[in-house]
Give the backbone structure.
Amino acid sequence: MGLIVQKYGGTSVKDAERVMNVARRITDAYKAGNNVVVAVSAQGDTTDDLIEKAKEINPNASKREMDMLLATGEQISIALLAMAIEKIGCPVISLTGWQAGVKTDTKYSAARIKNIDTERIHKELDSRRIVIVAGFQGINKYDDITTLGRGGSDTSAVALAAALHADVCEIYTDVDGVYTTDPRICKEAYKLDDISYDEMLELASLGANVLHNRSVEMAKKYNVKLSVRSSLNNNEGTYVKEVSQVEKMLVRGVTRDNDCARIALCGVEDTPGKAFQVFEMLAKAGICVDLIIQSIGDGKSKDISFTVTEGELDAALKILEENASMINAREIKSTKDVSKVSIVGAGMVNNTGVAAKMFEALYDAQINIKMIATSEIKISVLVARNQAEAAVNAIHSKFLSK
Amino acid sequence: MGLIVQKYGGTSVKDAERVMNVARRITDAYKAGNNVVVAVSAQGDTTDDLIEKAKEINPNASKREMDMLLATGEQISIALLAMAIEKIGCPVISLTGWQAGVKTDTKYSAARIKNIDTERIHKELDSRRIVIVAGFQGINKYDDITTLGRGGSDTSAVALAAALHADVCEIYTDVDGVYTTDPRICKEAYKLDDISYDEMLELASLGANVLHNRSVEMAKKYNVKLSVRSSLNNNEGTYVKEVSQVEKMLVRGVTRDNDCARIALCGVEDTPGKAFQVFEMLAKAGICVDLIIQSIGDGKSKDISFTVTEGELDAALKILEENASMINAREIKSTKDVSKVSIVGAGMVNNTGVAAKMFEALYDAQINIKMIATSEIKISVLVARNQAEAAVNAIHSKFLSK
């Protein structure tokens, strides 16, 4: 008999039919002799509807009251899911975040889990009950309800799996697992059987919206074995775990991220500390800078280009314009017409030639590279947005053809 | 500076506009220098919508999970109301039932408040915050969420007022206060300035749907002064408190209750214990019997008639038919075509002639009396339903004309 933690997202429980479907999946695992703990998100659009209600009354409501409001979404889900399991005839109990002992820090709307007091859950499991826990929420030291922010339910599930020493944490979603690239833009894409935490982290942060990074980081830290799979079929998913890459492919996946924009500061004075000043200014405003390129200066002037997310482009430009005299650039240019295409693979660091092979693929496809950045397990390039899909296909063919 | 507990029902907070309206009312009381604690119900149809969601999945869901589900309704209200108050710019905090320390017994869906641990509320009041508490809900000794059943939010408010020793508990509703009778069926009806707990109890149980009996009983027990008033205007409402009736009118109100049905057991054997057997049978099935009349038997047979609510008529008839051989009646008849009309007044008990005056009013209006029941502070008669409004008007004219 094992202990399984399962997580179901909002689309998996969006209506009565889906809730019953999820209930059957849970009771199957239970009837097979396992102890089962489930973390569940708010149904479909519930969270958005609640945010809409709040905005109508006060667009600047405190985060404490927003958390009080939003936490009801998951509470509705756990009650309905428990009712569905009752109907099937298995013993079950639903627990809110605070009832499940999920203790967080005090940062409302983006709280971090500090620890889980598992006493109540263990008591329920000892009575052979299925335990349904509200994801995305916890309680802080003031006994106030907090929510965990984006990807919160994944994080709840992994934290529960870690605290309970579960055998596996199954993340149910609307895709079959982790793919070599987005199947919607590359016909050759195929599902990976397993992938390492680090690779998953890079894939997630690069736009493969399967698992939120926080949950993968936590899974890595506590060595929780994740299984990413579909709630709509019984296909084997993808395991995320410590994988030995000997004898394995170097490149595991190709990603495309359209959520980027490029800013170029042309003709900046070529003096030490200039780049530091610019990026410190942006960091203070909470703007994340991704790729950075600085041309080799001639002693008089140089060009600095970097990317930010599309949503932060306007804010970044505003700051740069406000400090134009300090920056003293000849010209500030920007464009949203770019995408970031990356390859990810843990084996890459020890192998030469991977970057060259990637650039060759792009050259063969006549795609111009605007920026390049590399890390131990990934290589990213910036290309024109209308060439991004072609770039993904070209790179996928080069590295991942079956 | 006083301490005021206010209660707002579901219609008072049904949409953003109403929520803002209620927020202004609360902050006005706060700005006048009072400490304010508010108990609030779920918005408009929220509770019904949640029940509908549950039924779609499992019509026989456990009460524990129903309470988990329904408690979200009030949690949404308190968050939204707190946001509205934040917008006005007053310090405020919302608290769920468990955060407010509302401890109940373990009877899910119809829990009784055992005590309120007011530590948290006092702490918030000490920081001069307005405290918004979720009505209708509490927590039991297992740390599980319970709901209080019908009239629960009124009960929450009165319990809070009692525990906090509030100066007054203001119950906001969609009527202006307690009337001598239903203004919709009697043009002469007028609002009472004050009324005693006992009179209010009789009026509430007789169909004046202003305050739930549980809350009035609790107010009486802890001597909480209630003010029933409208959330839509600034009219003075009706105070419910210990009132000396010396020099006051004998009759305070006339009520009509259409939710009744009459069952007659004709030609029952006239032996001791027969009535006992019948009513014990019904009591065991949880069916409340209201008015009872037994004809004087002739030693051989007698007639027993009684009333039940419309909703319980079918269940009652089923039980009687199942036990037909034991009851051994010549005939069992039933009708829904009846209404109960009552007069209520604490002074009645010491005054003769009140009943006679009531019957005279009905005789003058040519209304036939089918059954009669009296208590210390009320007299009820059963009449044909299509004559009930006429009966109310005739009696009101007789006793309560201005």
